[in-house]
From TrEMBL:
<feature type="domain" description="Pirin C-terminal">
    <location>
        <begin position="201"/>
        <end position="306"/>
    </location>
</feature>
<dbReference type="InterPro" id="IPR008778">
    <property type="entry name" value="Pirin_C_dom"/>
</dbReference>
<dbReference type="InterPro" id="IPR014710">
    <property type="entry name" value="RmlC-like_jellyroll"/>
</dbReference>
<protein>
    <recommendedName>
        <fullName>Pirin family protein</fullName>
    </recommendedName>
</protein>
<dbReference type="InterPro" id="IPR011051">
    <property type="entry name" value="RmlC_Cupin_sf"/>
</dbReference>
<dbReference type="Pfam" id="PF05726">
    <property type="entry name" value="Pirin_C"/>
</dbReference>
<comment type="similarity">
    <text>Belongs to the pirin family.</text>
</comment>
<dbReference type="InterPro" id="IPR003829">
    <property type="entry name" value="Pirin_N_dom"/>
</dbReference>
<dbReference type="Pfam" id="PF02678">
    <property type="entry name" value="Pirin"/>
</dbReference>
<dbReference type="InterPro" id="IPR012093">
    <property type="entry name" value="Pirin"/>
</dbReference>
<feature type="domain" description="Pirin N-terminal">
    <location>
        <begin position="41"/>
        <end position="146"/>
    </location>
</feature>
């Protein structure tokens, strides 16, 4: 797993939390369901599946892989529209090429993140690079959809390219876990992602048997999703393994997690955000507040107001359709 790594003995450490710390309990755990996306690649999706309000401000989490593609097997998601939210694609192994209608894009690979704010509307594609299609190889990544509040849904689209080396690296208080802060703030350390909706987005590698404790913002919800390995969450020690999501309760100022023994490592995402608490109307690639706004999004897309596919990426079918 080549997501950026480091010797935890050389990194800033999370604080040792005092005995009087109040720990969040685990509200529920769920197992991700399998779906086919794009041209037919499989994803594991833990939410939506839980009550949407429990994940707010997050809308969807797709776990892609880990899978070893043979030659010609890699698939992607061709050009499609979005409006009303942000897509955050984090590649752990392998690579994905992104292009969009505002000129953003590039190769997302080995610990890098592309953060696309669709907002008022954008077209983009996410495709495996030609060399991965030709030769095959390991592919492992995650896409998170982050909702936008009503006041920001029609903002200008934007694109952020977050290199693997940009993530803020921290160690747990005893050095047994490596924490990559991609967005948000943990114990005063800030990640590079710029967010409209206040969130924390962390990837932690926890050594076998090691414990990870961290302070957590009082008004954020808290979710833990397992990329690989096994462990337990909460003071109650609820088991959590690959493909499972834990939803923590609302009260408490810190989280505690522990990796199981006899494994290479426990790889987890730790997510949280400030709930938006607004109505959600969603249909396919659009997430708005009302059904009328969804209908308007379809109308705007069909009229070309969500952007145009760049000329260099248009197929003969696209050009013929315009003619």
């Amino acid at each position: 797993m080549p997501a950026i790594t480091a010797d935890t003995l050389t990194l800033p450490r999370l604080p040792v939390l005092p005995p009087a710390t109040t720990w969040r309990g685990v509200r529920k755990t769920v197992r991700a369901q399998s779906f086919l996306e794009g041209e037919g690649f499989q994803v594991r999706r833990p939410f939506p599946g839980v009550d949407l309000a429990m994940a707010d401000p997050f809308l969807l989490l797709d776990h892609m892989g880990a899978v070893e593609y043979g030659p010609g097997e890699a698939k992607g998601a061709p050009w499609h529209p979005h409006r009303g939210f942000e897509t955050v694609t984090y590649m752990i192994d392998g690579a994905m090429a992104h292009t969009d209608s505002i000129g953003g894009g590039g190769l997302i690979t080995d610990g890098s993140t592309q953060w696309m704010t669709a907002a008022s509307g954008i077209l983009h594609n996410e495709m495996p690079p030609p060399e991965l299609v030709a030769k095959g190889g390991l592919f492992h990544g995650v896409q998170l959809w982050v909702n936008l509040p009503k006041s920001m849904k029609m903002a200008q689209p934007r694109y952020q390219d977050i290199a693997a080396g940009d993530a803020k690296l921290l160690a747990s208080d005893d050095g047994g876990a490596l924490v990559r802060v991609i967005a948000g703030e943990l114990a005063g350390y800030k990640g590079p992602g710029s967010t409209y909706t206040p969130i924390n987005y962390l990837h932690a590698t926890v050594a076998p048997g090691a414990r990870l404790t961290m302070p957590w913002p009082e008004h954020f919800n808290a979710l833990v999703y397992v990329l690989s390995g096994k462990g337990t969450v909460g003071r109650e020690g609820r088991p959590l393994e690959e493909g499972e999501l834990a939803v923590f309760g609302e009260s408490g100022e810190a989280l505690t997690l522990r990796a199981a023994e006899r494994q290479s490592a426990w790889e987890i995402l730790v997510l949280g955000g400030l709930p938006i608490n607004e109505p959600v109307a969603r249909y396919g690639p659009f997430v708005m507040n009302t059904r009328q706004e969804i209908l308007q999004a379809f109308e705007d897309y069909q009229a070309g107001r969500l952007g145009q596919i760049p000329v260099a990426h248009r197929s003969s079918a696209d050009i013929a359709e315009e003619d």
